[in-house]
Structures are given as structure tokens and as C-alpha cells.
Amino acid sequence: MSASYELTPERLAQVAERSARVAQEVSRAFVGPADVPRLLLTALYARGHVLLEGVPGVAKTTLAKAFASTLRSSFKRIQFTPDLLPSDITGTYVLSPADGTFRLREGPIFANVVLGDEINRAPAKTQSALLEAMQETQATIDGETRALPKPFLVIATQNPVEQAGTYPLPEAQIDRFLLRLVIGYPTAEQERDILERFGRALPTLNSVLEPETVLAIQAMVSEVHAEGSVLDYVVRLCGATRAHPHVLLGASPRASLSLLQAAKALALQAGRGHLLPDDVKRLALPVLAHRIVLTQDAQMEGVTGESVVRSLLEKVSVR
Questions:
Q1: Angle CA 109–65–270, to nearest 5
Q2: Among 6, 186, 198, 241, which residue's beta carbon has the most beta carbons within 10 A?
Q3: Region 1-200+208-219: CATH code
Q4: What's the sign of the alpha-carbon dihedral 18, 24, 30, 32?
Q5: pLDDT bucket at 242, cuts 50 / 70 / 90
Q6: Are 91 and 114 in contact (CB under 8 A)?
């Protein structure tokens, strides 16, 4: 695919075809909600990152590995533990016995796709080592700033905070994740499918997207057209979270930008060069719910960010 980001019908069709192939390949290894591979692509195209949440054993890591396998790019995995240090993520300088000089040993953050497994099993100091990388696509090691490979995508898995040995992610880090996807238990039919399909080794997946192709698609996302009415809808929807009685801190302007960018990426996967209100509605929950901070009373009443966003989607109309 050409690096040009002009939204010609041919290029839009190419993006739609490649995206469908990625989703098809991922579904060969992951059994679960059909829209999850598309949402991972949405984050990749929109230059964002993904937080996968669910109890152990629902194939969060399998999903991340399967998605990375469809990209012809470098992949690294970080297993977060309570004793993990920031330098274990970013890297450190080590003494070279050959010439007596210090050389950088790059950490696993220097990859196109980074899987942060069980990210909330490490304390906040270690979790924060990802912040600069996720926001600025760079890492600072002993005062030296180094650029990370492009494209760059962090897929982090998280266990429910009620489980023993977990730490809640700081709000500042949660806000860096474009999407939060909750992976629940499979249906009975899906679980039967898992037992039949994966008694053997997982299938070898085909690579579909090259780094150059991903970078071209990322550039095309910015060219997707959004009518003024759709922009107004995004503003009203995010503004409504700030006025909700159960919300202490609502969605920020960064959340508005994230919702718009993600919706454009979703439209591009459908082969469209323009945005629809349905694109915004589809992504409001995974983009906004984890960015909302509820009041203490609301939390005690069992209110969640998801329930707040769902109620607002019913109340805020598209004019």
C-alpha cells in the first residue's frame, strides 16, 4: 500500500480488505467477542493503546499474541510482577568487558507491539515507566532520550482489582489507554468451541500488515472527514459526563480527541472516508468509561463508568 494518505476509493478498499483479513486471522486463535479484533485495529490505526481486563484464563494474553502475529513487526512481552523495576522495562546501561565502556541494553519497551501482562501486579512506580513511552513514543534512560520503533502499540492485560496482589492503575496512566476492553467468560457454545479447537497447539497465524502499511493507514485516519454535527455530538457526550451526578471527574478534552480519533479509525476499517454518529456511539463505552472517576457514594451504590456512559448514550441525541 502506498504511503500516501489520500483517501481514494482504491486505498479505502485496501484498508477495509486488510482489516478484515487481520480480524479473520485473530479469530483463528481467539474465541470470544467478534468485535474485539476490530477494536484492537482501531487502537493501532489511531496511534493508541489498549487495556484488556478480565479474570485469569479468558485468553487475554492469547488475544494479544494472536493480534501481534498478524503484524509483520517486532513483538516483546513484559510479565509484570511486584519486584519488577522501571529499568526492567526501559533498559539500562551495562559495562562491556571488551572495551570497558557502558552500552545500552534496550528493554522490552523497544518493540512495535509490547504486551504488558498483568500490568496491575506491579506497584505504581513501575507502572509509570510506561507513561512516557505511551504518550511520547520515547523512553528516557539515565537522562538520554531514545525514540521507540514506529508503529508502537502497548496491549496491557489487567486482572480485576479485587484479586489478591493487584494494584489499581493511577488515573494518569489509565487515561493513556485509548480503549479499555473487558473480556468476560465465553458463552457455553464458545467454550465448547475452545475445547474442540485448542486441544492441540495453537495455529500459526499469517502476517497481514507491514509497519509501512500501518504508518500509511495511521496517516489516513487524520484525513477521515467529520461533519460539524458529529463533532458537536462528541462534545455534548463528553460534556454530559462532567455534569452527571454520579461523576466526580468527567471525560477530559483528551478523551474527546481520543473518541474522535478512534471513531475515524473505525470508519476507515469500514472503507469509509467520512464519520458517522454510529461510529462515535460504538466506541463511546470503551473510550470513555475507564476515564470517568465516580463519587464515593456512587461507587458504594454499585454505579460503574460503563453504566454512566450507557445512560448518556440514551439521553444525548444526535442533532
A1: 100
A2: 241
A3: 3.40.50.300
A4: positive
A5: very high
A6: no
